[in-house]
What does this fold into?
Amino acid sequence: MGVLEGKVVLVTGGGNGIGRDCALIAAAEGARVLVNDLGAGLKGDDEGSASPAEEVARLIRERGGEAASNSDSVTSYRAVQGMVEQALDTFGALHAVINPAGILRDVMFHKMTEDDWDKVIDVHMRGSFNVARATIELFRNQQDGAYMFFTSTSGLYGNIGQANYGAAKMGIAGLSRIIAMEGARNNVRANCIAPVAWTRMTQSVPIRDEAHAARRAAMAEKIRPDQPARFSVALVSPAAHVSGQVFGVSGETIHLYSQPRPIETCTKPEGEAWTVETILSEAVPQMAGKFYDLGGAGAPPPKKVEPA
It folds into this structure.
């Protein structure tokens, strides 16, 4: 018997990449699955298709599981409410949401258009709000609910050309944390994952140089979408008594990320005040040894910058 036996799971973006494997693995673990995917392109600017979601749902049914498909957009709150209603009408319940649905509009910030910004924020940030808000009261009332939101190292570390994507992903981490805090008394859990996997989104990131190309070639062989998908399924299961955390999965490596807390403090004695001059001459040099460099999402963990 699987860890999701008797549970119903909504998987957004379930027609491709990590979402597809989330849906398949959740079903293999006993869940009845509503597979959602708009079926649009990576940039979200072409017409959608019901085919990817239905293909995954059909595959689950062929393997003996229970699944239904949905091809609406997570950017519409009314559409997400419809997903919840579909799960309840089809399966009689809903217990968890795995939300990897996403698009990319990569461009340097000084060339980014309002549309580039709005489309990415709409799918990632607004989409995360929609799936959470449309389900939170149900989960609270039944004292049973779990979310797996998707953040990214592009937000946690930063990545050139992804200001829109990185901003949305950091917002999702904050949303997940607060939902976890507010949901604790009602057995509603929320975590987020920063996955590294070879998907169409990973492949779309521009190659900067030969070294970057070599790293990507190695990545394609070592990191697969089923690895973060398996972790996501495990964390929404009742067996995982975990909430409010930020995880990362890359290949067979699982990370627990730190969350922002003060790492250095400069305080003036009572009765004294910082001035512009003393901030520059005292506070900044004192903190400089713990500054982070500008390493991006593809770089090793940030190194500390030593004071001059």
User: Anything to note?
Assistant: The chain has two domains: 8-256, 262-308.
